[in-house]
Amino acid sequence: MPYLEIRKLEKKYKDFTLSASFGVEKGEFLCIIGPSGSGKSTLLSLIAGLDKPDGGTIILDGKDITSEKIQKREIGMVFQDFTLFPSMNVEKNIQFGMKEKRKSERKKLSDSLLSLVDLEGYGKRSVSSLSGGEAQRVQLARAIAAEPRILLLDEPLSALDAPLRKSIRNAIRAIHDSTGITMLYVTHDREEAFSISDSIMIMHDGKTVSMGTAEELYRKPSDLFTAFFTGEGTALPAHLIYENMEGYLFFRPENAVLSEEPINPDMYPMHIILSDAEILSCEFNGSAYMLGLQYQGYPMLLQSAVKPRRKTVSVMILKESLLNLE
């Protein structure tokens, strides 16, 4: 049985319904991604007990906690907005959830947590003197100080600039690895999810669409939504390639090869050859050229190591890289 199991959890609103079922193993780092309004934050609120579900069950470590009070769930939460207590210094903020520990233990643990989040010596500082990144690190330390069974993070880096986001996300992963705590991390940033997660769950319109590792979701998406949400790609109507096939054939830009010369299909039996594709755009991204093409009126996206000279080209796609998706 998973450490955290969500069984047919539902929350109904006037124009939106959340419906989710999934499991998380103990010590797992799960990233939950999806477009705005897909139900990611609502799901965390239900698990934390900040909101009540209209149906379904939340099982944590074999116990039904669906109706448990927030304080009894032993679940920590870090929000995108900084929620530190301005009247307390850094040390007191971290020690807020340690009321059952002796003073000497609180001091020792808060110092240890400050070291863990790379803020040694910050204990006596006022929270108003902290930068955004420092404040978020203190929030993390405070959440862990309460020794939660699960830590929920709701877009904790969205208020930070790009370089700082990368630094803090690496710190969050390091905290996970050193503590072994189970984490559920909501983000809309695909790169962020890919870089720090053990596994990823994709949500859309209140439902869990796909779940797997970053590599699994990128290389073998189960549907077109997952395919495009996890990276760039092309979806051509399958009947353009195979007469009686339905749905779409999807491939990634790196799985196609461009040729400015005509290609003899008999020489490449393992490939699909698309002739007379027209190049519409060419952008250099620092390591390769990303090409926008059109084939029989349908858009395609290809990656090329060299800038093409001609506007009309042929495209080779390895057959085994094509995915038939709906």
In short:
With 326 residues, the protein is an alpha+beta fold. The protein has 9 helices and 18 strands.
Protein model, in words:
The chain is an alpha+beta fold and about 325 residues long. It is about 25% helix and about 35% strand. The chain has helices at about 40-50, 70-75, 90-95, 105-115, 130-145, 160-180, 190-195, 215-220, 225-230; strands at about 5-10, 15-25, 30-35, 55-60, 65, 75-80, 150-155, 180-185, 200-205, 205-210, 235, 250, 255-260, 270-285, 290-295, 300-305, 310-320, 325. The strands form 4 sheets. The protein has a 6-stranded mixed sheet, sandwiched between helices. Helix 4 packs across helix 5 and helix 5 (about 130-145) packs parallel to helix 6. The longest helix has 18 residues, at about 160-180. It is elongated, with a radius of gyration of 24 Å.
- Beta-strand content: 25-35%
Major sheet attributes = 6 strands, mixed
- Tell me the structural class: alpha+beta
Oligomer: single chain
Globally, the shape reads elongated
Summarize model confidence as the mean pLDDT: 92
Low-confidence stretches: none
Distance between the termini: 32 Å
Radius of gyration: 24 Å
Give the number of helices. 9
Order of neighbouring strands in the sheet with most strands: 6-7-8-3-9-10
Kindly state the percentage of residues in helix: 25-40%
Order of helices and strands: EEEHEEHEHHHEHEHEEHHEEEEEEEE
Q: Tell me the total number of β-strands.
A: 18
